[in-house]
Design brief:
globular, Terpenoid_cyclase/PrenylTrfase, two-stranded antiparallel ribbon, mainly alpha, PZP protein, 136 residues
Length: 136
């Protein structure tokens, strides 16, 4: 069943999400989910505000971009060991990527360039079987 954004259930849900988005101390995972939800709903201003906030919290390293949990211990560089992030970090980074790519009109060249840095990190998290450490 497809519901339009004018349906009362959808309007009420979006109102709830907008209220949540206005919280001062939203967790990065929550911001990632909200950004994707607003992207799907076509709420461009809310999507952009959340993506701008998320960019300030991004970990930019080795030509890639990702997000991690606040207060997380830094990863250890060991020889012959490829660190893979916990599933929550793979998931929230993937949601930010989806929020960047879900845009009407189509994402700008700048957004696509940034999205490619996110995709680079996600690809680096694949295990030898091609899967990810994720519950999604």
């Amino acid at each position: 069943v497809s519901l339009s954004s004018q349906h009362s259930v959808v309007r009420n849900a979006l109102f709830c999400l907008e209220t949540a988005a206005n919280q001062k101390e939203n967790h990065v995972y929550t911001k990632a989910l909200l950004a994707y939800a607003f992207a799907l709903a076509g709420k461009r201003d809310k999507r952009k505000a959340l993506l701008d906030s998320l960019e300030k919290e991004a970990v930019k390293k080795d030509g890639s971009v990702h997000w991690q949990r606040p207060g997380k211990e830094p990863e250890v560089d060991l020889p012959y060991y490829h660190y893979r992030a916990p599933s929550a970090e793979v998931e929230m980074t993937a949601y930010v990527l989806l929020a960047h790519l879900t845009s009407q009109p189509a994402p700008s060249q700048e957004e696509l360039s940034f999205a490619s840095l996110i995709a680079k990190w996600i690809v680096g998290q694949q295990n030898p079987s091609g899967g990810f450490s994720s519950t999604q």
